[in-house]
Specification:
Length: 253
């Protein structure tokens, strides 16, 4: 599908976020539905033996469908809107922390035609199927933005970038993968450190983590810190695994 500047369509292959979860949900759903069919065959019309596994199976299958929609389509549409709201200038430098195969990074790169789009990741396949720096480079070429994309292998808790060196920091479903609160705080500190005065930040992550991020950013002096839900298109299986976005701005003074 052809890419238009700033659009959510894409030519690259961006894999599946944390692929074990939709596979697990689908497997459990199929097992429960099969169990419901078996129970109905054995018990005739006695609904009690059929209804619960049938409902459970439908919920698990529905969760897998929701997850796959988000990771293959929904997140692209939502990030298209988030990037539009950030009002990126063509000459800005953007950093994507935990960029993976480049879904968000390369959408941003389309909008900074004379700037830079920098991605950093540890390239773990458990967090995204087929995740590797070579795949991200290939996606950048497919999207026609390889000339302005820079990729680094590294930890977002200790990035190799200079203080006040980027205009916008982005992150999508990455910071929550850091297991300890101290590590997540260090990643946020890095985001604040590398932002230029007046720079903007947008972090999309699982809803249970975003209030923690917002409180920490306020403690670090960030302004206009806001948290809002991103709606059903960014549900990783249902409303119980919804995604919020935290936005903030670094003081200009």
């Amino acid at each position: 599908m052809a890419q238009t500047t700033g659009d959510s369509s894409h030519r690259g292959d961006y894999g599946i976020d944390e692929p074990r979860w939709p596979l697990l949900n689908a497997a459990v759903g199929v097992i429960l539905l099969a169990g419901a069919a078996w129970a109905r065959e054995r018990s005739g019309r006695r609904a009690g033996w059929v209804l619960l596994p049938a409902l459970g199976g439908a919920c698990f299958v529905g969760s897998a469908v929701s997850y796959l929609y988000t990771t293959t389509r929904g997140k692209f549409a939502v990030w298209h809107e988030l990037l539009r709201d950030l009002d990126l200038r063509e000459d800005e430098t953007v950093l994507d922390m935990g960029c993976g195969r480049g879904a968000v990074l390369l959408m941003a790169a389309q909008l900074v035609s004379s700037g830079r789009a920098i991605g950093i990741d540890l390239w773990r396949t458990a967090e995204q199927s087929g995740n590797s720096i070579e795949v991200t480079r290939r996606n950048a070429a497919l999207e026609g933005v390889a000339d302005r994309v820079e990729l680094h292998t590294g930890d977002m808790r200790a990035t190799p970038f200079a203080d006040a060196s980027v205009d916008v920091v982005l992150s999508s479903l990455a910071i929550h993968n850091i297991a300890d609160a101290g590590g997540r705080a260090r990643a946020l500190d890095e985001a604040v450190r590398v932002l230029r005065p007046g720079g903007r930040l947008a972090i999309a992550d699982i809803l249970y983590a975003t209030d923690e991020y917002a409180d920490h950013l306020r403690d670090r002096g960030m302004e206009d810190v806001r948290v809002r839900t991103l709606g059903w298109r960014f549900w990783y299986g249902g409303p119980w695994v919804a995604t919020n976005v935290v936005t903030a701005r670094k003081p200009s003074g």
